[in-house]
Design a protein that fits this description.
five-stranded parallel β-sheet; alpha/beta
Length: 142
């Protein structure tokens, strides 16, 4: 990833948005040069992530499509790149936009909604959030 003064991080989450909120809180506490946009697949997830300190927030398919174009890093549960996952909250257009984005994708291995990642131990959300933020730090320091 190209070294910059300010990075655009897109955090996408669904359901209740709790994982996204924890990630946003950790990123905002650790980095000054990051603008975080939270996009929820539903309004509850968006509201939860905004409470976590996101700089911007939006809900639904079109914001995912639009913001994926300019993001440097996209973070979310692995289901964000699988159409119809998160109980149907991820549309095919969302998954396609994220997959086609030039952003680095940091996907969190959440084994739910019949999406199982083989070889990944069942880690706590706290551990997954810590690992995610450490990866973001590595990307920003390249």
């Amino acid at each position: 990833m190209e070294k910059k003064n300010n990075y655009k991080v897109l955090v996408i989450d669904g359901q209740g948005g709790k994982i996204g909120k924890q990630i946003i809180e950790a990123i905002k506490a650790r980095f000054d040069n990051v603008e975080v946009t939270a996009i929820g697949t539903n309004s509850i997830a968006t509201a939860t992530m905004i409470k976590g300190g996101a700089d911007n927030g939006a809900t639904g398919e079109n914001p995912v499509v639009v913001c994926s174009r300019t993001a440097d890093i996209i973070i979310g549960p692995v289901g964000i790149v699988i159409a119809d996952s998160l109980l149907g909250e991820v549309t095919p257009e969302m998954a396609l936009a994220i997959g086609r984005s030039n952003a680095v994708k940091v996907l969190i291995p959440v084994n739910k909604c019949d999406n199982i990642i083989v070889g990944i131990p069942d880690l706590s959300i706290t551990k997954l959030v810590t690992d995610t933020v450490n990866i973001v730090e590595q990307l920003l320091n390249k």
